[in-house]
Each structure stands twice: as structure tokens, then as C-alpha cells.
Write a structure and sequence with these properties.
Layout: E1 4-8, H1 13-24, E2 28-33, H2 40-43, E3 47-50, H3 60-70, E4 75-78, H4 88-107, E5 118-122, H5 136-156, E6 162-168, E7 171-172, H6 177-181, H7 184-193, E8 200-201, H8 202-212, E9 224-227, H9 236-244
Parallel strand pairs: 1-2, 1-4, 2-3, 4-5, 5-6, 6-9, 7-8
Helix pairs in contact: 1-8, 3-4, 4-5
Length: 246
């Protein structure tokens, strides 16, 4: 399979895994990020368009640069995460939500006219649930992404572009897996409260994105899918009883 995949935040974490998946499928890959991938092997295989999502006000230039280098888009995947030091409300909404909207609007006219075409957005379980590990801005931005997905699924459907979201639970990625794997108590907690009995990995979310960005998902659009090992199906009372042994 060939084509052009544009991955926003495609240099590390889940974005890096997604970029590698597209490369394995024979796609041309462009990553939008502030810096060139630190991994020299990845950097040698992808095109890089420098962009600071915190200050982005128009998505036309970075999208045009990607298309000029590798041709019309087949896939657009959003894996960015706000990690700035400024106001978390403004920063999170800008990087996660506004930048996504700006880039989708700019990309709408840059998709190929035929072949498989799709957009995938990495949201979070916090789009629908509440937790103290993330601020209010994160919850609001992720919920907004899910609604944005529905809007653009409707808007871009007539031109054959599917738009879907994935909602991961906390997952292991290359950059942070040692912290989790060395914490025996934390790993035991995930085994106890996740129905599938383990913490997730970046590959779990990448597998779903790989599917959604393929013709196997040709009639799926406007959906937000949990990647949480079944946690979202468990009633909180049952979870509490199980963890406390009551």
C-alpha cells in the first residue's frame, strides 16, 4: 500500500509508532513537529515540516509544504500533546483543539481525489470521564476533539474522507515504559482493575489507527473508540468492590 500520510506530532511516543506503521506499509510519511525526529533512523525515512502548534494561526503553510514534498494526502493523524509551560488552559486548547481544527481545514482540499482517505485523531478516555491526573483544560480539549471528529466526518464524508478518534487509557510508550515497568505496585493495580489484565501499550492504539486508516474501515466514520482494555464497561461500584475486597 502506498500513499502519503501526514502525522502531527509524529516524532516520539505514539506518533512515532504510527509513523513507523505507515512506513512499513510503503507510505510516504511527513511529520509535523517542532523538531526533527531524534531517532536518526526515523528522521532519514520521513519528511519533516517544522511547526509550533502553540503559535499556529493558519494551517495552510505547513500542509502545503507537506503536499509539495510528498504529494496529495491519503491519511492525516493527530498525535500531538501540549507540553508547554504557559497557561495550561490556553495552551491545551490551542495545541490539542484549535491546531487540529486549523490543520483539518487546510488539509480538506489537499486530499487525493481517489484511493483510501482518512483522518484519525488521538483523543483520550478523559473525553468522557473525569480524573485528577489531568487538568480541566485537558478534559475539555479532548471532549472537544470528539465533537470535532463528528463535525468533520459529516463535512468531509461527501468527498470520501473518513474521520475517527481513538480514546486510549494510560499506556506504555518507549519514552516512559521503564517508569511503569519498574513500579511493581502500579503494574499490579493495572492487572487488577483492567478487565484484560494489563496496562496498554502504544502499539494497541497504533493498531486501531492502522485499521481506521485503511480500506478495511471503509464504512466507519464519526466514531470515537475506547482503547482501554475494557475499563470503560465496568460500573464504578464493581471496580471499587474488586479493589477493596469488600
Amino acid at each position: 500500500m502506498s500513499g502519503h500520510a501526514l502525522v502531527v506530532g509524529g516524532t516520539h511516543g505514539l506518533g512515532r509508532v504510527v509513523s513507523e506503521r505507515f512506513l512499513a506499509r510503503g507510505c510516504r510519511v511527513t511529520v509535523l513537529a517542532r523538531k526533527v525526529p531524534a531517532d536518526a533512523a526515523l528522521a532519514a525515512r520521513v519528511a519533516h515540516v517544522a511547526v509550533d502548534l502553540e503559535t499556529l494561526r493558519d494551517g495552510a503553510a505547513p500542509v502545503a509544504a507537506a503536499v509539495a514534498h510528498a504529494g496529495p494526502l491519503n491519511y492525516l493523524v493527530f498525535c500531538q500533546r501540549y507540553r508547554g509551560q504557559g497557561d495550561p488552559w490556553q495552551g491545551e486548547l490551542q495545541v490539542s483543539l484549535s491546531a487540529t481544527d486549523l490543520l483539518i481545514r487546510a488539509a480538506a482540499a489537499q486530499f487525493a481525489h481517489d484511493g483510501d482517505r482518512a483522518i484519525a485523531v488521538v483523543s483520550s478516555v478523559y473525553a468522557e470521564f473525569v480524573g485528577g491526573s489531568q487538568p480541566a483544560s485537558y478534559h475539555v480539549a479532548k471532549a472537544g476533539l470528539n465533537q470535532l471528529v463528528k463535525f468533520y466526518a459529516w463535512r468531509l464524508g461527501p468527498q470520501g474522507v473518513r474521520v475517527n478518534a481513538v480514546m486510549p487509557l494510560t499506556y506504555l510508550k518507549q519514552e516512559s515504559q521503564d517508569h511503569y515497568l519498574k513500579n511493581t505496585a502500579l503494574m499490579d493495580l493495572y492487572r487488577r482493575f483492567v478487565p484484560l489484565g494489563r496496562i496498554g501499550s502504544a502499539d494497541d492504539s497504533a493498531n486501531l489507527i492502522d485499521f481506521l486508516c485503511s480500506d478495511k474501515a471503509a464504512f466507519i466514520t464519526g466514531q470515537a473508540t475506547f482503547v482501554d482494555g475494557g475499563v470503560s464497561i465496568v460500573w464504578p461500584e464493581e471496580l471499587a468492590r474488586g479493589l477493596t475486597g469488600i
